[in-house]
């Protein structure tokens, strides 16, 4: 298998909300998994400051449309992108290609495509409140490759420490706004996802937990 790593680069043209989402995903994952990444460099505090600064300057420039504010926003975006790139280098050093460690970082995972290879697992999942009480919206990373579909399954427990009993597998081709409804408010929804192509299925992602509203 080709060497797999966390992707910290921010391609030119990456949208404002996308880089903020990526930074937020990394922060959340690395805080939860601090025992795996005990001494991040740059620190998570530095990433939080870079994210907050960019978010603030983005809000100001969106209102004023002033050239100075736009320039400050672009400067803050570049600083956030650089912080993510440096942090990905740290993650790759710690992980040394170990997939579970890479997934724990919240970074997107990349590897050169190999003909006939089963897809990689999505590197992140996000649960959000649906429009109605008792519904949850599920988003996850798009996996590179041709004709990739996805499967997810979920379980409901009464508390965060409950052991999930996984239900039926749901097939989907979209990575956004997969709605699970008919849930009981204040229960805990456990969700996991895997990718599928003609060559087989990926490993299940580590499950996430979301409290139903």
Automatic annotation (TrEMBL):
<dbReference type="InterPro" id="IPR013783">
    <property type="entry name" value="Ig-like_fold"/>
</dbReference>
<dbReference type="InterPro" id="IPR036116">
    <property type="entry name" value="FN3_sf"/>
</dbReference>
<feature type="domain" description="Fibronectin type-III">
    <location>
        <begin position="118"/>
        <end position="213"/>
    </location>
</feature>
<protein>
    <recommendedName>
        <fullName>Fibronectin type-III domain-containing protein</fullName>
    </recommendedName>
</protein>
<dbReference type="InterPro" id="IPR003961">
    <property type="entry name" value="FN3_dom"/>
</dbReference>
